[in-house]
Amino acid sequence: MKLRQALTGAALCAFTNFAIPAFADMPKEMSWTAYDTGSSGFNIAVAIGQQFKQAHSSDVRILPSGNDTGRLSPVKANRAVISQMGIGTYFAQEGMFEFGSKSWGPQPARLIMAATACNGLSLAVAKDTGVKEVKDIKGKRVGIVVGSPALTQGVLALISFGGLTEKDVTLVQFSSNNAMWKGIINNEADVALSSTISGQAKEADSSPRGITWPAMPTEDKEGWARIHKRAPYFVAQKATCGAGGLSPDHPVTMASYAYPIFMTYADRPADTIHAITKTMIDTYDGYKAGAPGADGMALDLQNFTWVVPYHEGAIQAFKEKGVWSDAAQKHNDGLIARQKVMMDAWKAYRGSAPSDDKAFAGGWLKARAEALKKAGMDVVFE
Q: How many Cβ atoms are within 10 Å of 136's Cβ, its own excluded?
């Protein structure tokens, strides 16, 4: 079991100490959860946490966990203020996959800030396959990871850009993400969902097979509509860094979404979340070079019309910076209304749900879909 990591000035490299006014609502001690120790997400949290220490003498303890429920459980139990998540944030809101079990259900997720860097998060294809466009993936071997809905849901959504479904490819199951990438290098699979800057993609790119990233032009409205029907959280990104020769001079427009995502729950005090958000914004210059990808936390890179609503405290900070619009508020209100529909449906379903786990999950999918359709909202997962 990994030990909980506490941030201390002695344990971390020093950053410039910026003169940031103290906030009465900033906790002197708080816990955040993040991906495993050594991951890019964990390192970004460490860099930001050090700035909280310098700016407000606020000690941030980072609790690492390798899965979504492990990261979210301390926040749900109010033992942590923030969870630093990936797309599990969206799955938690929707009450899907591991969050469709009896002990979870739709969660009142609220965004704080997220990182969007120069990389993409898209379809990595072995170069020796000859694939040039997404439609060329037809007949190829697509890697998926058992127990990883983010990877499986994502890769199936992205091949739909080329009009393909899982029936058009051969799905190859692997026990882990690392195993999947070894499978690609060893010619056991051809395609995987990956960040362009992941170590695995770089390793595969240096192998005899090589790596390429089929483009997903924004002009292809129908292709993007097919992606969003299954995975509305993907956005178009002009990737300029990573494996496969990506650079500012050789960019490729592909899919992506922000990572890491700093989120909390709706019932956390607005004053506290406001203080945290404002500090993340105001100390950006102090942490942007503190970890790879931390520069993606810039205020002008935040997406205010994504698929999960922002916390009211974060919105207050954005308003103070003059970046929150009426359109963003309208979008946010709609997302909160969607959450309410799903949480009301969950409450009603729990009262008469079957005890068998498989039957429970299947019944919830049906109840969820009926509630969303009745409200005129997209079901997404069917």
A: 15
Q: How far is CA 128 from CA 61, 132, 207, 323, in A?
A: 45, 11, 11, 45
Eight-state DSSP code of residue 291: S
Sign of CA dihedral 273, 275, 281, 287: negative
Task: Return the closest-CA partner of residue 146 out of 175, 182, 104, 189.
Answer: 175
Contact by Cβ (8 Å): 125, 299 = no
What are the pLDDT digits (tens) for 239-254?
Answer: 999 999 999 999 999 9
Q: How far is CA 193 from CA 100, 124, 163, 171, in A?
A: 23, 6, 17, 13
Q: In whole angstroms, what is the distance from residue 251 CA to residue 248 CA?
A: 6
pLDDT digits (tens, 9 = 90+) for 322-362: 999 999 999 999 999 999 999 999 999 998 899 999 999 99
CA distance 259 to 297: 9
Taking CA atoms, 368 is separated from 93, 239, 348, 362, in Å, by: 12, 35, 10, 10
The residue type of 18 is F
Contact 338, 106 (CB under 8 A): no
pTM (two decimals):
0.85
260 preceded by a cis bond (ω within 30 of 0): yes
Cα within 13 Å of Cα(340), Cβ side: 7
